[in-house]
Amino acid sequence: MIKLSVDKEKCTKCGLCISDCIAKCIENDEEGYPEMGYRDRCLKCQHCMMICPTAALSFDGKNPNDSEKVSNKDILSIIKSRRSIRQYKDEELSESELQAIKDMLPYIPTGCNSHKLHFSIVEKKEVMRTLKEKVNKKLLKALNNKLLAPLVKHFETYKESFENGEDIIFRNAPHMIVVSSPITAPCAPQDPIIALSYIELYANSLGIGTCWCGYGEICMKIFPEFSEILEIPKGYVPVYTMLLGKPAVKYQRIPQPEPYKIAEIKDIIPKDSCIWCKTKRLFTNFLR
């Protein structure tokens, strides 16, 4: 059972934890303090605890005072403090900030050093607004069409939000980068993900917020006209999308993540696996 504890002596009822909850599982109680209203939606991202300016929230038994302070002094600090930004200031990045990211792109590694990635960078917030309107219109039309609805089933939950003009896909970000790779590239699926990982860390070092936009990636693929709008060359496939902009929120501390499993291989130990086990493993390896 996920638990959100609130120190009412510290809580100022600012609402940052509620507005920054991507899963919308936090709401105000009768006194105006935050409470966990929909535990089954919680993604355990700890954004609520990290964004609280007064350290009034404890998430799932974790004390905010045990978290490290956010610092951009070195690469490890940037990795630790990196957060998906879903609230942006209504202003564009400067030309120098955008140019700094462009100047970094040639140094991004690719498989077999193919260096044939394509970057579509939306540089004007007016263009982003137009894209939002076009995407919302397309999604609503598809959701209301029995033949097309299965293609956009991921968006069914947000149908009412689209009807109200909410920007569920692009989060009102002023900029977006779509990375595409040639169909024939030796590492076509992997190279754009590596590229965006580099872009994200560098952008964060400049104080620029980013967000991996999975819904945007789906839209780029199911609505081919957006490839034309984004000037993606023929023979290239849009692989993934990232939002960029100046954050409208500031995270105060670093999360306390659960550790991943690590196999510390220090010797070769013979395994006597059965043929069925090997076949199952082989199938699993190619399942995704």
Written overview of the protein:
By secondary structure, this protein is α+β, with helices and mostly antiparallel strands. The protein is built from ten helices and eight strands. It has helices at residues 16-19, 47-51, 75-81, 95-104, 125-143, 159-163, 190-205, 214-222, 225-229, 275-285; strands at residues 4-6, 26-28, 34-36, 57-59, 118-122, 175-182, 209-212, 236-245. The strands form three sheets. A four-stranded antiparallel beta sheet has the order 5-6-8-7, sandwiched between helices. Strands 1-4 form a two-stranded antiparallel sheet. The chain has a two-stranded antiparallel ribbon with strand order 2-3. A hairpin with a 5-residue loop joins strand 2 and strand 3. The longest helix is centred in the middle third of the chain and has 19 residues, at 125-143. It is globular. It starts with a strand and ends with a helix.
